[in-house]
Amino acid sequence: YRKFSELNYEKETLYGFSYQFWGRISEIESASDLTYAAVDKNRYPIPLQKLKSKNAGVSLRYWPNEAYLQNKRSKSPFYLTEPLFMLSHTVGENSVFGGNELYHKTELSFQKRIELSNHGFIDLVADYQKVWTKAPFPLLLYPNGSKGWVVDNKAFFLARALDFINDEQYSLRATYVADNLFFSRVPILKKLGFKELLILRGVKGTLSNKNKPTAENGLFVLPPHTIEMNNTPYMEGVIGITNILGILRVEYIHRLTYRNHPGVLKYGFRLDATF
């Protein structure tokens, strides 16, 4: 559970550039069978009920020729073929080290839609994240996971929470929505507007020695189901159908790597409706 107070300021320009500053005070509490505990020199766990942190950051965003429809509480972008760049840095302190060691995290991301003439389009999303300092595992990096039925192109659906924990991480997601491909050759499917959907998602990360828990560094013991990444990235493949009746999308997701660990999810289905 996370309870936090945040103050942020955001400025948008007419040239596709925007920036944001924020400050946040948060309190994170473990629940269920997840525990926060360090190990003392006698190898006994020292439980900690809550993790408190204070941090501030800045985010830069550039989307040339940005255009969007402004609604009452949200906005919908169009002209998605322009590349989008984002860079952010966070600095702060946490209760594990008593405010004596600062926390630094940098994130860089890139998004781009590639039009394929009358054959559809590909959406590419790539990002890089790095925690530069020692930090307890709730403040480290892990794949953006989602267990809901609603589809999110940026999420890894078969990665359990804290399956992988890293302090340096790269990810790449490619979504292909076809047009005038196989379904267009079947009259009834063409009339209904069905479109093929192919997605490939991958993430590769490492956990440096400074963030591996020991009795000397006072870091929390990692959850027992956490898998240490080797040279193989975690990958998911998706095949699906979109534009069903103009609003529905259905997917089959298959876990391509790290399939032999106990309790992992090897496949799944997702359904999404957009009105």
Quick summary of this structure?
This protein has one helix at residues 187-192, and strands at residues 2-12, 17-29, 37-39, 45-47, 50-62, 67-70, 75-78, 84-94, 103-115, 120-131, 168-178, 195-206, 234-244, 248-255, 267-273. It is mainly β. The strands form three sheets. Strands 1-2-5-8-9-10-11-12-13-14-15 form an eleven-stranded antiparallel sheet, with no helix packed on it.
Write the layout of secondary structure elements.
Layout: E1 2-12, E2 17-29, E3 37-39, E4 45-47, E5 50-62, E6 67-70, E7 75-78, E8 84-94, E9 103-115, E10 120-131, E11 168-178, H1 187-192, E12 195-206, E13 234-244, E14 248-255, E15 267-273
Antiparallel strand pairs: 1-2, 2-5, 3-4, 5-8, 6-7, 8-9, 9-10, 10-11, 11-12, 12-13, 13-14, 14-15
**Main beta-sheet strand count, sense and barrel state:** 11 strands, antiparallel
Q: What is the end-to-end distance?
A: 31 Å
Number of helices: 1
Low-confidence stretches: none
Q: Which bin fits the share of residues in helices?
A: under 10%
User: Helix/strand-derived class?
Assistant: mainly beta
What oligomeric arrangement do these chains adopt? single chain
The total of beta strands comes to 15
What is the molecular shape? Answer: globular
Mean pLDDT, nearest integer? 88
Radius of gyration: 21 Å
**What percentage of amino acids are in beta strands?**
over 45%
What sequence of helices (H) and strands (E) makes up the elements?
A: EEEEEEEEEEEHEEEE
Q: Walk across the major sheet and give the strand order.
A: 1-2-5-8-9-10-11-12-13-14-15
